[in-house]
Design brief:
Number of helices: 5
Strand order of the largest sheet: 5-4-3-6
Radius of gyration: 18 Å
Distance between the termini: 18 Å
CATH class of the largest domain: Alpha Beta
Mean pLDDT: 87
Strand content: 5-15%
Largest sheet: 4 strands, parallel
Structural class: alpha/beta
Helix content: 25-40%
Oligomer: single chain
Low-confidence stretches: none
CATH superfamily of the largest domain: NAD(P)-binding Rossmann-like Domain
Order of helices and strands: EEHHEHEHEHE
């Protein structure tokens, strides 16, 4: 919680801290009001959940960037929910070249469907060399969507 406390613990009493002000994987929880968003009670929860953090964060990173221009080159590090939302928004804003970088190659098909022009696994070589080989003068925008602090 924002005051440094937690409302979660294991069965033996060990404290489990919240991540980013909210947490999941429980039937009931206590959250700060700033971590909540009211949705229409008629909304399908299986669709509304997609509008949680991932899509809004990824789209917002691109759409709220006043310097983002069409014809840009973009590198997206991490092709999970946030990364794919960045790819989709960058494509929508007219990015010409979108490079998806992830260690899980199973994500590459979806990434290309969302708008990636190329994908690369950094475990198979240097991401720096890959990107320099594609963009001689550098990448216009890069987005870290790895979720790894």
């Amino acid at each position: 919680m924002t005051d440094g406390t937690s409302r979660f613990s294991t069965l033996d009493g060990q404290v489990i801290y919240h991540f980013m002000g909210c947490s999941t994987f429980s039937e009931y929880t206590v959250l700060n009001d700033i971590s909540l968003a009211k949705i229409n009670p008629n909304a399908n929860p299986y669709e509304a959940c997609l509008l949680g953090c991932g899509v809004c964060t990824g789209w917002g990173a691109v759409l709220n960037n006043p310097n983002f221009k069409s014809k840009s080159s973009v590198a997206v590090w991490g092709l999970g929910a946030v990364g794919l939302a960045v790819v989709q928004a960058a494509k929508l804003k007219g990015a010409d070249r979108i490079y998806g970088i992830d260690i899980n190659e199973d994500k590459f098909t979806a990434a290309k469907e969302f708008g990636c022009t190329d994908c690369f696994n950094p475990l198979k070589g240097s991401a720096k060399d890959f990107l320099i080989g594609k963009e001689k003068w550098g990448i216009d925008f890069t987005f870290d969507c790895t979720g790894n602090v």
